[in-house]
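#struct-help
A.M.: can someone run this one for me? Single chain, 275 residues.
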Amino acid sequence: MIKKGGLILRKRKVWLISTIIASIFLTSCDSIEGAATEGNEQTVVEKDNKIDTEIQSSNGSGDGSERNLEPKKNDIWDGYEGYAKTLTEFELPERGLLEGDEAKEVFEQAGHGLFAVYENGYVIKKESKSVFVLSYIDGKRPYPYGTQSLALFKTFISTITGELGLFGENMGSRNKDLGELTNEERDMISKGSMSWRKLHGNSERVVKSLRQFETYFAEQGYDDLATWTTDTVDLYEEILTLDHTEWKKAYTNYLEGAERIERMDMVIELMSKKS
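D.P.: on it. Structure tokens below:
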């Protein structure tokens, strides 16, 4: 039996992960430490912080500084409103939904009525329709039932948005345009040092995670989201073919991909507040 944060879970490996930690890219369970017992593996993937406006307080250093999340696009809704509606107006699936004692066997807080608990290991917050706990079996993410893929996508986008910063103490700090980089920051990328490794590592994680959603969305008829995912993955995938001598192209791709992810997160948040 394991007790963490007031939650007791039996016969499971439990990983309680803060969403401001970079390892929460939902790609693999291998690098995250946690308490272990027999059975499946659970990961808490809910994001607690919310975007109230287009300015969000940063979560890294806790110094009260703010970062401007407003994308370069004058209208953040341009081309994104349809995505936002799809990702906020969907209904959770009935397939595999557990009730009563069966639900509590998977997730003991299920009795509070705040969560939809499923036989394939997904625990989804009903209000936000985002994944709160996800049980991996043999180190693999279970295939989602229907709109579970939308809930998981929302959680991934919400989580990764604050993890794409490359410079400074604040992990969520917004990256500068290429022409705004200082000589020191240019060196940190162009010489293959820490920022280059972080850029490359983040790109690899984004590719590994988002690529799976291409399959989910294509099979479930969300063609527009499948296309958005492919276009975003392609930007990061090209980075993986480049070395640090081609850092300007890599950095440009990275910025474009980060802005796409950031816009997606913002329109989902803002659409949720409208509904």
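A.M.: thanks! Strands lie at 2-4, 7-9, 12-15, 40-44, 55-57, 66-68, 97-98, 115-118, 122-125, 130-136.
D.P.: also worth noting: Residues 1-39, 46-71 have pLDDT under 50 and may be disordered.
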